[in-house]
Design goal:
- The chain has 163 residues and is mostly beta strands.
- Helices cover 12% and strands 44% of the residues.
- The protein contains 1 helix and 10 strands; from the N terminus they run H-E-E-E-E-E-E-E-E-E-E.
- Strands 1, 2, 3, 4, 5 and 8 form a 6-stranded antiparallel beta sheet that branches.
- A hairpin with a 7-residue loop joins strand 9 and strand 10.
- The N and C termini lie far apart (65 Å).
Length: 163
C-alpha cells in the first residue's frame, strides 16, 4: 500500500511536469475577455511558478492575474475604475499578494497607474474624463505581474465606447 501511494504521487508529478513542458505550458496564457455589463469587462492571464514543481500542497503553482474595468457616467463625466489582483489556482481562487502587480489605464487621455502594493489585495486606479453628450469613450487598460517566483504576465483589456 505504501508503494502504491508513492507510485500514484510520482504519476501525478510526471503529469504536472509534462503539462508545463507542453507548448504554451510554461508561459502565461491570456484568457478571453468577459463582458460584465454594457461598459465593464474582465480579462485573465495565468502565470506559473518558476522552477521545479513542489510536492508541498501549500505552494501555489499557478496564479491568475485578473484585470477588471468598470465604468459609470456621472453627468457628463465618465468615471473609470480599473482593478488588478492575483488569485491562487485561477480567477475564482483565494486572493494572493499583489507583489509585482502593476495596473495602468492607458487611454483615453494621459495614462494613470496604480501605486505599488505588496500585501494581499487588489491594486486599483481611477480616472474621470469628460464625456460630451454622455457618450462613453473606448477605454484600454493593462495589468502586469513581475514577481521573481513566477513567470511574467501581462493582460490587456479594451472596453469599446459608444452610447
Amino acid at each position: 500500500m505504501k508503494y502504491l501511494l508513492h507510485l500514484l504521487l510520482a504519476t501525478v508529478t510526471a503529469l504536472c511536469l509534462g503539462s508545463c513542458a507542453a507548448p504554451g505550458g510554461g508561459g502565461s496564457s491570456a484568457g478571453a475577455q468577459t463582458q460584465l455589463g454594457p461598459h465593464s469587462a474582465q480579462k485573465i492571464t495565468l502565470v506559473h511558478r518558476v522552477g521545479r514543481p513542489s510536492l508541498d500542497p501549500n505552494v501555489v503553482e499557478t496564479m491568475a492575474l485578473v484585470l477588471t474595468v468598470e465604468q459609470t457616467m456621472q453627468g457628463n463625466e465618465q468615471e473609470i475604475v480599473a482593478k488588478a489582483s492575483a488569485h491562487k489556482d485561477g480567477p475564482h481562487g483565494s486572493l494572493m499578494s499583489a507583489r509585482g502587480v502593476q495596473l495602468t489605464i492607458t487611454s483615453p487621455g494621459q495614462p494613470v497607474s496604480s501605486k505599488p502594493h505588496s500585501e494581499v489585495g487588489t491594486v486599483s486606479a481611477t480616472k474621470t474624463i469628460p464625456a460630451p453628450g454622455g457618450k462613453y469613450q473606448t477605454v484600454t487598460a493593462q495589468a502586469t505581474i513581475q514577481n521573481p517566483d513566477y513567470t511574467n504576465g501581462q493582460v490587456d483589456l479594451t472596453v469599446p465606447g459608444g452610447q
